[in-house]
Amino acid sequence: MGSQQQFVGTPVQIKTTIGEDIQGELFCYDVLNGCNAVILREDLKNGFCNYVFAKTNIIKDVKALGPAPSREPEALPAIDIQLLTHREEQALRNQQRNRMQIGVGVTRQAQEIFDRLRQTMQCDWQDTSILVMKTVLISKPYRPEDCTQVKELDNPQQLDRVKKVLAGEREKLARKEKEKEKKNSSGSGMSSPAPS
């Protein structure tokens, strides 16, 4: 067993400079090659485990809770790099898709309109305007009369459909806002008895 690996597997307790106590099995450490960190492994009762990464500059004290194991550390399982690359690419695509669903520099109401339209039609933000089905652009303040056709429509009724759905969603949002105001005004104001 090499000197770098002689303590791997030892149960330890680390006290940090901020007063935190961390316990676990020493999984690996690098204090010579620039990383300056230790990783502890904590086995959980459900068969899983947690890993805690601690930079050496936050470690105040290290205490061994038992002897170093006399066995060689278990070999790490093989990693499917191709699968990891595929997962990373998929996560980046999902993140990009989700980022395109959040308007930048728009009001809360504009985002609500976008979210409601997106439930039934493909929508994307184009600056502060909503592009619906890549053919209809809804500009501020997002009313039916703010809808314009941006390219030739295969279906001429598509613009009318977007206007109609937008009008319906705006009505729903207005009703929701009125109910909220009514609830807030009736709940916050205390009524006093009328003078007799």
Care to describe what's here?
Helix 2 (108-118) crosses helix 3 (157-188). By secondary structure, this protein is α+β, with helices and mostly antiparallel strands. The protein is elongated, with a radius of gyration of 30 Å. It has two domains: 3-64, SH3 type barrels, CATH 2.30.30; 102-181. Mean pLDDT is 83; it is low at 190-196. 8% of the residues are buried. It is built from three helices and nine strands. The strands form two sheets. A five-stranded antiparallel β-sheet has the order 4-3-2-1-5, with no helix packed on it.
Report strand order across the widest sheet: 4-3-2-1-5
Sheet bearing the most strands, described? Answer: 5 strands, antiparallel
Low-confidence residue ranges:
190-196
The helix fraction, in percent, is: 25-40%
CA-CA gap between termini = 96 Å
Q: Gist?
A:
By secondary structure, this protein is of the alpha+beta class.
List its traits.
single chain; 196 residues; alpha+beta; SH3 type barrels; 2 domains; five-stranded antiparallel β-sheet; four-stranded antiparallel β-sheet; 9 strands; 32% helix; elongated; disordered C terminus
